[in-house]
Amino acid sequence: MSRRLSFYVHIPYCIKRCGYCDFNTYTPAELKGPDLLSVSSNYISAALAEIGMAHKVVGEAHVPSIFFGGGTPSLMPAQELASIIAEIRSRFSLLPDAEITIEVNPDSVTSEFLSEMRTAGANRISMGMQSAVPHVLQVLDRTHNPENVSTAVGKARAAGFEHVSVDLIYGAPKESFDDWRISVEAALSIPIDHISAYALIVEKGTKLAAQISRGELELPPEDETAEKYRYADDQFIAAGFDWYELSNWSRSGGSCKHNIAYWDGSYWWGVGPGAHSYLDNKRWWNVKHPNTYIQKVSEGVLPALNEEELTEENLADEFIMLQIRRREGIPLDRLNNKQIENCREYLTTGYLDEQSWRDGKLTLTQSGRLIADRIVRTLVM
Questions:
Q1: 367 lies in a domain?
Q2: What is the pLDDT of residue 144?
Q3: What average pLDDT does the segment 279-308 reach?
Q4: Are strands 163-170 and 124-130 parallel, antiparallel or unpaired?
Q5: Backbone angles phi, psi at 166, to 5 degrees
Q6: Which structural domain range is residue 371 located in?
Q7: 312 occurs within a structural domain
Q8: Which of 242, 263, 284 finishes a domain?
Q9: Does 87 lie in the same domain as 232?
Q10: Which residue, 226, 233, 96, 106, is CA-closest to 166?
Q11: Pairing of strands 6-11, 61-70
């Protein structure tokens, strides 16, 4: 029986780098090119070649999902992204109900792009909304007009996209609770079936980290950030969304299959510079710079920079770290007696769901989700 293999396709280009972002992305200026077209001219050919290499390594496989992430995939010509879908379809067995997601920027995505991608088989849009409040977007260095999110979602629906998701970020400097309320209400006012909401993490080496270090900006108190999560969770659920992962909520049928593949230990191949892959208990990651990536692939060499073999202990720990984030929780029979005993305190203090525990699962309550990392440290010994 053929194995299942999801594909992540990295598009490493942005017009402007956001101040909080530490993803492996590059602007034309950073690549010393006049525009996006010139710096990305050989990229899609290299990505197609890596897909061919994947087929040689993996052999036959069913593909349940493809995810174009970045960077900003919607900056690329639609026909180039469509050629990647076609290549995966020609090399592997793309399942009839495969989920194909495109990350888009609300300012740069066009009706023509969306229509072409829908014709190519894409059926899910993930949009970087982040906030509906201009001064919060300014702190995050986001360039889009908040009003364009609703317009872009409308274009995606008009193009026939079945699933549309928006990403929100809470806990940014200068974001008040009222600012967050406005963003949540704005997200719930548009025709979407999925919301991701992430607490801002200030990554070392970013512009935002430097601004905070210099005292130019200050993060809001942790208690306030926790209350923003509680508020959002309550509002999403009241609007018909269910949480299925710590930072993700969806209407019925709207959960992201691709992300679930990461969380449940399925195999995936990451195409592009800096992309990670996981297959047969081995994880590897590609060289980071697009030019180095293109050169290696053009030489017929797998562009991996390094790899690691996961031991049984590694796999057991990762199962706990990922599964605890999910609504399904951790089956208690996957834990030893000491781990179960260490968790009883969290059960009695309301951080674990009592009914789930009686049903043989460790599942976080809303309060428990706020301290998920602390509970993980109790379990991973």
A1: yes
A2: 80
A3: 97
A4: parallel
A5: -125, 145
A6: 330-379
A7: no
A8: 263
A9: yes
A10: 106
A11: parallel
